[in-house]
Specification:
Structural class: alpha+beta
Mean pLDDT: 95
Shape: globular
Number of helices: 4
Radius of gyration: 17 Å
Largest sheet: 8 strands, mixed
Helix content: 25-40%
Distance between the termini: 23 Å
Order of helices and strands: HHHEEEEEEEEH
Length: 205
């Protein structure tokens, strides 16, 4: 039940709070830092939409949360490659966007189901660049895990690079759009939800 622990109970999950999840990750990290760090990346990708569903009444995140609970999907974060500036390229095509990107530090990617990521759409006619946010399934033939994570110590976190080579995200799959390289209010939620979960691992280590 750990995969779905952060999903609200009303949506089929364990209903654990960020404080409870942090305590669990800290305890896990005492025994295996790699497992805890990899799992913290999934955990914060669940905790953020759970917070938005509970406190902002964002209905759009509900299908994802229900799938995590029902199918026990592992969500992989590319925050190490993206953050505010974004990375990769999105090109508009009929019905969606073709994505080309290399994402680094994709912890737990060997067992990932969905990669929660984004790419930069160049502005046209003087318009600013945008970052598009979306999920990419690892089952796509245009997604490849690269065997790059040959570290010592934290090798078992599986933080390989992942290459997206022409995967097309449909228009309906774009979860959010924002101006590239500028602070967006959603980062307030990310920073106050994700960072405690990740730092709890280091406390445990």
């Amino acid at each position: 039940g750990f995969v779905e622990a952060g999903v609200p109970a009303e949506l089929g999950g364990g209903g654990a709070s960020v404080a409870e999840l942090s305590a669990a990750l800290r305890k896990l990290a005492y025994h295996c830092g790699s497992t805890a760090l990899a799992f913290s990346m999934h955990t914060h990708q669940v905790a953020i939409p759970a917070w938005r569903w509970r406190h902002q009444k964002v209905a759009a995140v509900e299908p994802l949360l229900k799938r995590v609970a029902a199918e026990r999907l592992m969500l992989i974060s590319t925050g190490g490659a993206d953050w505010i500036g974004g990375s990769g390229e999105a090109v508009a095509v009929e019905g969606g966007y073709r994505i080309t990107a290399k994402k680094v530090f994709c912890s737990a990617s060997p067992v990932g189901d969905l990669m929660m990521t984004g790419a930069v759409l160049k502005g046209q006619d003087g318009a600013p660049d945008e970052v598009l946010h979306f999920a990419v399934p690892f089952s796509s033939p245009n997604v490849r895990r690269l065997d790059t994570w040959h570290t010592l110590g934290m090798r078992a976190s599986g933080s390989h690079d992942v290459f997206i080579d022409g995967h097309v995200v449909p228009d309906a799959g774009i979860a959010m759009r924002r101006r590239a390289a500028e602070w967006h209010p959603v980062f307030q939620i990310i920073a106050t939800t994700a960072i405690p979960l990740i730092y709890a691992v280091y406390v445990g280590v």
